[in-house]
Amino acid sequence: MSTQTKSKLYLLIIGILLITNIAMLFFFFNKKDDGKKGANRGNNDRGAMMKSFLQKEIGFNDQQIQLYDTLSKQYKQKMKADFEAQKNNKEEQFKELGVKGFSDSAIADMVSKTGERQKLMELQLLNHFAAIRKICTVEQQAKFDTLFYKIWNKKKKPEEKRPDGK
Question: Which label site among 51, 111, 122, 130 has the fewest CB atoms less than 10 Å from its CB?
Fold first, then answer.
């Protein structure tokens, strides 16, 4: 297999992986509960888990929870708008890719644009976590830093985890 063919294959694989990651993020944030739209959207369980975690494990008081709720609503609105824009943009990119005959440069350009958008979304997520951390007192920040990653494991809630972390 020639170097050029391998390069095309690698670019195509990277493009597919990036598109798949974005699609997974989209479905994660737009998951429906019981087929209902609107207030019963998918992040309710994760939101309840997060709120419980912040109260029980970190020690958030009512005022801190209100601040968290405000941050969470803002973040969800921003991400919803970003996903909608991304969905609309993706269709245009595919059309452009077809017009350019799936050339190497067109594929590379699409992969690059997709990677940049994914990078920005990841940055927004991490900034959201940092904003939640800023709500913490100094004592709570230490707990937050050492326990926070556990809340993102969907299998078990942090309080249900075994001491060995499994």
Answer: 130
DSSP 41: E
The residue count of the chain comes to 166
Total Cβ atoms within 10 A of residue 57:
19
Domain boundaries, the chain: 3-32+41-160
Report the alpha-carbon distance of residue 164 to residue 73 in Å, rounded.
34
CA distance 25 to 18: 11
For residue 38, what are its two tokens? Answer: 């609107």
Cα distances (angstroms) measured from residue 58 to each of 20, 44, 52, 96, 134? 34, 20, 9, 49, 13
d(CA 136, CA 41): 27
Beta strands of 3-83 (E only): which ranges? 32-33, 36-41
Per-residue confidence (pLDDT) for residue 111, from 0 to 100: 86
Q: Considering the entire predicted model, what is its pTM?
A: 0.62
pLDDT at 91: 82
| Neighbour-count burial of 58, counting CB atoms closer than 10 A to its CB (0-12 exposed, 13-18 middle, 19+ buried) | buried
DSSP state at residue 136? S
DSSP element (H, E) containing 61: none
